[in-house]
C-alpha cells in the first residue's frame, strides 16, 4: 500500500482569495500529519497564486513526516530548494495561464537542462522526482538524467469520461509504473485523484506514494482536515 502525501496548496488558495493570514497551510499540515498523512506536499508556483515562500520555510521547520516541494525547474526555484532543503523535490511543468497542472514535464525534450537541475539538487542531498506522463520516452529520459523518482501524472485517468476510458488510462499508468520500476526508478503518482478513483492507483504494484490535495482540501472544507485525511487513507485501502 503506498503512502499518502497530502498537498496543502488549496488551503493557501482560500487564504490568498483575501490576501489574508487564514487558513494557514502550515496549521493544515500539522492536522494532516496528526490524522495519518505520511508526507506533506506544497507547490511553490512562480506566480505564488497559493503557497508562499513563507509557507515552505515554516513547513521545513514544522513537518515531522517528509516535505515534498513541487516546483518548476527554474534557477529561482533551485536556489530556494537548495536553501530550504525539502526532503525531496518534484519538478513539475508550469504555465501562468493554467488553472492547474495540465500534463507531465517534458524530460526527453530538455535532457540537458533537467539533468543539470537534477544533478545540482541531488548533489546537495535532495532527491528529485520528475512529474511525467506515463510514456516510455519520458521514463527513459528520467533514467538518463538520474532522477531517483518519477511521479506519474494521473490527470487523464482522473478526468476520464467513462469506464472504458478510465480502464484504458489505468492500463497506461500500470504499464508505465512497471516500466519505471524495471528501469530502476521509484514511482509515485498524483493529480486529480479523489476518494472515488484512488483505490485502483493505490493497488498498482510498486507504487510508493500518492500525492493528493484538491479532493482532500475540498472535503476538509466541509468535515475538517483530520477526518478528510483519515477517510482518504481508508479510501486507498478500499475501506471507505
Ligand atoms: C503537479 C500537480 O499535479 C499538483 O501537485 C500541482 O500542485 C497542481 O497545481 P495546483 O495545486 O496549483 O493546482
Ligand atoms: N502532484 C499531485 C499533487 O500533489 C496533488 O494534486 P491534486 O490532488 O491537488 O490534483
TrEMBL record:
One of its GO terms (biological process) is pyridoxine biosynthetic process. Pathway: Cofactor biosynthesis; pyridoxine 5'-phosphate biosynthesis; pyridoxine 5'-phosphate from D-erythrose 4-phosphate: step 5/5. The keyword Cytoplasm applies. 1-deoxy-D-xylulose 5-phosphate binds at residues 9-10, 45, 50, 100. It is an enzyme of class 2 (transferase). Its EC number is 2.6.99.2. GO terms for molecular function: pyridoxine 5'-phosphate synthase activity. Catalyzes the complicated ring closure reaction between the two acyclic compounds 1-deoxy-D-xylulose-5-phosphate (DXP) and 3-amino-2-oxopropyl phosphate (1-amino-acetone-3-phosphate or AAP) to form pyridoxine 5'-phosphate (PNP) and inorganic phosphate. Homooctamer; tetramer of dimers. This is Pyridoxine 5'-phosphate synthase. It comes from Brasilonema sennae CENA114. The gene is pdxJ.
